[in-house]
Amino acid sequence: MIDFTLTDEQREFRDMAHKFAEKTIRPAAPEADEKEEVPWEVIEKAHQAGLLTYSFPERYGGGGVESVLTKAIVDEEFFWGDAGIATIMGGVALAATPILIAGTEEQKMKYMSRLCDPGKVTLGAYALTEPSAGSDPAGMITNARKEKNKYILNGYKTFITNAGIADVYVVFATVDASRGTEGITAFIVEKDWRGVTPGKKEKKMGIRASHTASISFDDVEVPIENRLGA
């Protein structure tokens, strides 16, 4: 039987997250939602407080929180503050997860340390969803073709949280169509690489402070060392 009684540490995290949501997120939420704009001051404060990377390993500069229950408690408070703002914040951890699971130590040191850098907000985006397939990998059209020491990435993703404002993208693409879903892998792509083009920002009925948009990849040259799980 699972015991959901909170530890002293979990209560401390909950109280910290609640205070941040109450004092920083909620006051900014109405204007951010009405204008459909990212409240960068809130994101900056969250980053400085370590709230964007609290669940990342300490060796990369994160907070080292591993408990799933603790993460759920903290995220619940952020979403109580505002779902749109919390979605922006959560997008960082979503993008980091494939790197932590399948990345090499070199990839982790380079990109996790960058996400955790206290001197600069670095946002991440998890690019899976496509117009013709939704989030079903079996229908994925985005592809990557290997050429010597690089991959040539082509495709289009839609409804991507933080697309257009993220610095680092984890992009899923087919490398071997004959293998079906087993022929899909992910690549770490940087925003300023040639061929990476943010698209239309979506108009939404709710959660409007979050930045949801499309992004295209046209003959993007991805170094072979940026393939995950190779």
Structure write-up:
- The protein is α+β, with helices and mostly antiparallel strands and 230 residues long.
- The protein folds into 2 domains: 8-116, Butyryl-Coa Dehydrogenase, subunit A, domain 1 (Orthogonal Bundle); 124-228, Butyryl-CoA Dehydrogenase, subunit A, domain 2 (Beta Barrel).
- The chain has 5 helices and 8 strands.
- Strand 2 and strand 3 form a beta hairpin.
- Helix 1 runs parallel beside helix 3 (68-81) and helix 3 (68-81) packs antiparallel against helix 4.
Compact summary:
The protein is of the alpha+beta class. Helices cover 36% and strands 24% of the residues.
> How far apart are the termini?
39 Å
Low-confidence stretches: none
Number of domains: 2
* Number of helical segments with 4 or more residues: 5
The outline comes out as globular
Report the CATH architecture of the largest domain: Orthogonal Bundle
Number of strands: 8
Sheet of most strands:
4 strands, mixed
Give me the CATH fold name of the largest domain.
Butyryl-Coa Dehydrogenase, subunit A, domain 1
Strand-pairing-aware structural class: alpha+beta
Roughly what fraction of the amino acids lie in strands? 15-25%
Order of adjacent strands in the largest pleated sheet: 1-4-5-8
How much helical structure, as a percent, in the residues? 25-40%
Secondary-structure element order, N to C: HHHHHEEEEEEEE
Task: Identify the CATH class of the largest domain.
Answer: Mainly Alpha
Labels describing this entry:
alpha+beta; Butyryl-CoA Dehydrogenase, subunit A, domain 2; 2 domains; 5 helices
